[in-house]
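Lecture 7 notes: from sequence to structure.
We start with the chain below.
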Amino acid sequence: MPVNDPRFPGAVLLTLILAIVLSIIPLGESVAFWRPEWVALTLVHWALIIRDRISLVMVFAIGLIVDALYGSLLGQHALGYVLVTYLAVRLSLRMTPEAFLQQLALLFAILGVYMLVNLWMLRVISSGGALGWIYWVSLLSSIVIWPVYHSLLGYFHVQRKAL
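Predicted structure tokens for the same chain:
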């Protein structure tokens, strides 16, 4: 059975920093809702690849950094990202890694839970107007971009033969 390892020691951290940068790039108001959940996608990728070596403490710290950058409730994204990583690791144990439709279903479920947690947190801290279906557009764009993004992140790890 092949073993996946990061190509270099800081590969996971570098891809997470790139995902954070992609997440905070300013977009116009009309396309901002279409922005994929880059950090969550990156966490799912690494949870599928190196599931036994991903640190929930590091994921929580990344979430706190994203909270600080967005100016959101401290711990909102941290909780969501820890949940995403935990679910990805647990559910990937029951999945065939090459099954594309299983990956998409897993991603849909995990990102759906993540977005529900974020929506719940938004409702708790504010009494703003209804977001409607437009809130869920980023889930759709994340699912659509996943195959390309997953294969691009594949350049950051190497596959070795197990002993």
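Points to note: The longest helix spans residues 100-125. The two ends are 9 Å apart (CA to CA).
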